[in-house]
Write a structure and sequence with these properties.
It is built from seven helices and four strands. By secondary structure, the protein is an alpha+beta fold. It has one domain. A four-stranded antiparallel sheet has the order 1-2-4-3, with helices on one face. Strand 3 and strand 4 form a beta hairpin. The chain is globular. The relative contact order is 0.13.
Length: 222
Amino acid sequence: MKRSIRISAAIAAALGLGLAAVTALGQPVGMAPGMMHGMDHGAAGGHGRMAGAVGMLTRQDAGSAADMGLVHDLVMNHARIKRTVTNLPDGVRTVTESDDPTVAQAIKAHVASMSQRLKDGREFNIFSPTLPVLFENRDKIESVVEVTEKGSVVTRTSADARVVAALQGHAVEVTELARGGPMAMRRGMMSRMAMGKRGPRAGTEPNPAPATGAAATTEHAH
């Protein structure tokens, strides 16, 4: 009986974490696109609707909350996004657009911000296993961003086969979010929880060696 109680408690805890992830990306009925930009877009790690999602980022900086707000708007309006992906021998070409002017502007802002982050090495990632590879090898990536009336066309190429695979894999991840919207985002956040404290970087970085006579430490993902 005691074992059954322990199992039930573990399941309840897991469900609680899942609900926390869902709540972080929730949106009240009637909230228009863009309204999230007035919430928690100051310093990273603020308190409020997006604090939970921002807190799951592998890295945080002053622009994290604002960028998470853009992601939220795009995920919530995924049905209004049109996206095509073309794999190239040395990379990928993506076209992401919307007939909705507000969503189109959000696409442009998101692409511009993420492109600058890649250039600066300021990682923005919750659950993608491909982004660590891209940020660590950003000097091996050639990027061409074309802003269109309805969104952005992005071509990224590399001479490194591992980076090419990561570029194409990340394009698939983004397409899944554009197709699945909130449900795809929730699946991703649940997968992050399953990865443990080191998140999507698990397996890409060595575990820190414990100091002699001291307890072992674990890298903090945030």
